[in-house]
Structures are given as C-alpha cells and as structure tokens.
Amino acid sequence: MFISPAYAQGALGGDMGALGSFLPLILIFVVFYFLLIRPQQKKQKAHREMLAALHRGDRIVTAGGLVGVITKVLSDTEVTVEISEGVKVRVMRGMISDIIAKTEARTSDEAKDDNKAKKDKE
Questions:
Q1: Cα dihedral angle (92, 98, 103, 109), rounded to 10 degrees?
Q2: Which residue, among 41, 102, 101, 52, has the nearest Cα to 77 in the 3D structure?
Q3: Whether residues 43 and 66 fall in one domain
Q4: CA angle, corner 97, sides to 91 and 100, nearest 5?
Q5: Is this model's pTM higher than 0.70 or not?
Q6: 94: which residues sit within 8 A by CB, 6+ positions away?
Q7: How far apart are CA 61 and CA 69, in angstroms?
Q8: Per-residue pLDDT for the chain (122 aa), expressed as one digit of tens each?
Q9: Does residue 119 form part of some domain?
Q10: Quick check: is 120 in a domain?
Q11: Structural domain of residue 73, as residue ranges?
Q12: Is residue 112 part of a domain?
C-alpha cells in the first residue's frame, strides 16, 4: 500500500490546522476586548463612582434630560431633586446621567454652623 506524501503531511499537521483555524477567532475576541469591552467597563466604573459621590447642592442632569439641584439624599438609591423653584421630585440614583456643577463635600461642623446661623436669623 502506497501513502502519498501530501496525505502524510496533512495527517501530521492536523493539530496545528485546528489551532490555526481558531487563531483568527481568538484574535477577534482580543481586539473586541480592548476596543469595546474594557472601555465600557471603565465608563461604568466611573459612573458608579460619580453616583456614590453625589451630595446635596450638586446640579445634575437625569437620564430623561431634566436639570435640577439635589436638595436631599434620601437613601443609597434615591435623591430629592428640585427641578424648579418649589417643585421637588424623587429620582433614582441610577437615572442620574451627569453632574453639571459639583459642590464641595460639607463637613458636619459646617452643617452645624449653617443650622445655627438659620436659627439666629429667626
């Protein structure tokens, strides 16, 4: 029985042929990871950090396009936003898309001083 040299080479290179056929798929996944997945994860992380750093007095934009000022942080998931003079709405933190103007975080001493000044005015 005679085995042709082309057939013998194909049988020996079979393992390399399988790896070679998966190599383009692996490269495509690596490119997708660095161009799409990784930047999206960084953006999500920055958004989570921004939501965690919300304070009273921050001027924000909601996902629906409403612009307002945070008047009270109700819980980890809700804030009260004043969208017009005397008009306050409750907004889920996740629906806040951007901070327009950030206020400095106030210390408890500053808050006490403000409360004392308000009482003195009355």
A1: 30
A2: 52
A3: no
A4: 100
A5: no
A6: 51, 77
A7: 9
A8: 566 555 555 555 556 677 788 899 999 999 999 999 999 999 999 999 999 989 999 999 999 999 999 999 999 899 999 999 999 999 999 999 999 988 876 555 555 555 555 555 55
A9: no
A10: no
A11: 55-103
A12: no
